[in-house]
Amino acid sequence: MFMLAGIVVLHITTIILLLVATIDNAWWITDAVSTDLWGRWELTSSAWHYTNLPKTYPEEYLQTVQATSVLACIFAILALFVFVAQLFTLPKGQRFTFTGILQLIACLCIMIAASVYTAELHAKETDGGYGHSYVLAWISFVLTFILAVTYLVLRKKSE
Questions:
Q1: Closest by alpha carbon to 64, among 12, 2, 103, 114?
Q2: How many Å apart are CA 33 and CA 46, to the nearest integer?
Q3: Per residue in 106-115, pLDDT tens?
C-alpha cells in the first residue's frame, strides 16, 4: 500500500515538475533577460516586459522543443490515468506495461526537448546561463525514466 502511494506521489510530482518546466520563464537567464519556450522577459527601467522571442532563434528547433515539452506533459498525465485504470481492471500478477510505455515516451520527449534546447538554441551564447526551468526539465527526465522502469517491473499483487 505504501509503495503504491509512493509511486502515485512520485508520478504527480513528476507531472508538476514537467508543467513548471514547460510553462515557467527561466530556461535561459541573464541579468536583464529571462527566456522561456514561448517568449522573452526583458528588464527595462526596473520593470519586466514580455516580448516575442527574437528571430535569431532557429524556428524549427524551437518548435521541436515546444512540441516535445507539451507532449511529455500529455503522456505523463495520460500515464497516471492509465495506471489508475489498470489498478482496477488489470488481472492480478500482470505488469503495468502500457503505463510504463507511456511514461517512457514522456521520458524520451522531455529528453529530446532539453537536448535540442542545449545543442541548438543557446550553444554560442556566452552571456547568461540555463535557468531553473531547464534544470527542472532534466530532473523530470530522470524521474520519468525511474517511473517508466518501475511501471515495467511492477506487478499487480494479490491482496
A1: 114
A2: 12
A3: 999 999 999 9
Measured between alpha carbons, how far is 142 from 15 in angstroms, rounded to an integer? 12
Mind listing the pLDDT tens digit for each residue in 115-125? 999 998 877 77
- Total residues found in the chain within this entry: 159
Distances in whole angstroms, Cα of residue 105 to Cα of each of 22, 25, 73, 108: 16, 24, 10, 5
Sign (positive/negative) of CA torsion 109, 141, 93, 82? negative
Could you give the count of Cα atoms lying within 13 Å of 54 in the half-sphere of its Cβ? 9
Distance CA 30, CA 128 (A): 4
Between CA 40 and CA 62 the distance in angstroms is: 13
C-alpha angle with apex 128: 125 to 133, nearest 5 degrees?
Answer: 110
- Note the pTM of the prediction, 2 decimals: 0.89
End-to-end CA distance of the chain: 10
The amino acid at residue 7 is I
Contact 7, 76 (CB under 8 A): no
SS3 46: coil
